Please model this.
Amino acid sequence: MLLGGPIPEDGIVNALRAIEAQRTTGSLRYRGTAGEEGEVRLVRGQIAAEQHETADGSDPVEVLLALRAGHYELEQRLPPLPVSKGDHLMRSGSLVVHVTADLMNYCERAGLTGLLVLEQGDKGAEIAYARGDLESIRLDGLSELHQVFAWEEGKFRVEAHAELPRFDVSDDAAAETADPFEEAETTEFVRPSQPTTATRKQLLRVVEMELAEILREREERRPATKTSPPLPPLAEVRAPETLPPPAGEVADPPPSRREPTVRVVYLGAAPRPEPSGSHEAPEPEASHTPEEAVPAESPASPGALGAALWAVLALLVALGALTVLAALPTLD
Model:
């Protein structure tokens, strides 16, 4: 359950604004004090246009809006994902069929709060989402972040969680500000592919990467020869004007948090990652003004000093020759 509580005396209309802020694709279950019960389908936090009637043939939305007492619960339900298996809380399948970038789009489109788990052999990655926003990534090494987006083999699992999954570090505040390549605190990590046996301690390194860079990388490294099965369209939603306005002044719900960076947690030591584009750019050559392009030799330079010595030597030779000539006797 993502959200729930008692139905207020003035009805649930005001609570629907907080429910919409969750951006959940799923259902809103309710039970009234007089035995009324039903389920309202939601698409990214909004009421779906088509609903399943209650047992007496009533519109479940109308019944819910009329209640002045009772209880409600908000539950995630994963939308259909072709060529996968599971239920409304978990879907799994093969990376031979589905492209990583498309799976990430599926999670965002569904407003997922939960995990996208990717595995290939002994390698793995966990991508955490909150209300459809990419929050954090945990994987084995720095160099694997970009490789994950190009995987064409392996398996995946999409998990809906009641709360945002957090990749704990002993001291989050210190990890966020420390040099990501300095030794960090240790924490216990259980690999998803081996939940019963692989319990080990490894060094964690936490860095912040620009969200835009990660989204760009995942599209650039998308396999060129493969496409995922097309996703069925999400259900239509009801127009807002079909619902009564909230009673009284209600503060806007907190906006969905979309940080410009994504928290990336690495397990174990690894080399520094290459910058976006996978090749390190060459060092730029120093620029010169036209006057500096061919600098003149200074007097102290080796070439100028050599010329001066030759000039002095030639002068001494000339003076010596004149002295010798002056000392010779005159001819009668």
Q: What stands out?
A: The chain has eight helices and 14 strands.
